[in-house]
Amino acid sequence: xxRISKLTDYAIIILGYMAKTPGKTYxxxxxxxxAGVAAPTVSKVLKALARAEVLxxxxxxxxxxxxxxxxxETTVAAIIRALEGPIALTECGLESAQCEQSxxxxxxxxxxxxxxAIQAALDAVTLADMANPMTRAPDGFNIPLGSITIQPRRNxx
Length: 157
Known about the structure:
Elements: H1 6-19, H2 28-35, H3 39-51, E1 55-58, E2 64-67, H4 76-84, H5 108-124, H6 127-131
Antiparallel strand pairs: 1-2
């Protein structure tokens, strides 16, 4: 089963709250209260998002956190990468992966296609999409699979 961590789930909840009032600066305490998440956990999430430049942080008495980009330009993929690292179903889906079976693996290219499809799907959904409540699932959510190219397998010997 594919799952994101609880921290990533909290990040999307926190960012969804922030997306409702673009340009506003939020304190960690205010975001903890709104999300119903412990303040230390919120601080950890906010720091990771700021490091990944999903958020801007400002120090001082009027400091806090703001979205670095409009919610329409912040992808779910960027949020996941900020907390989870590179997105891949399998280790061989990572560019830098060195697998013991890579020299004899005949399915690596297939995993690569699947990884790019998932990446494209997550890049197609924005924070603005997540911030707006859905009454039901959309009838036709199209993943742009036509833009995914099959790359020849590299020999990893």
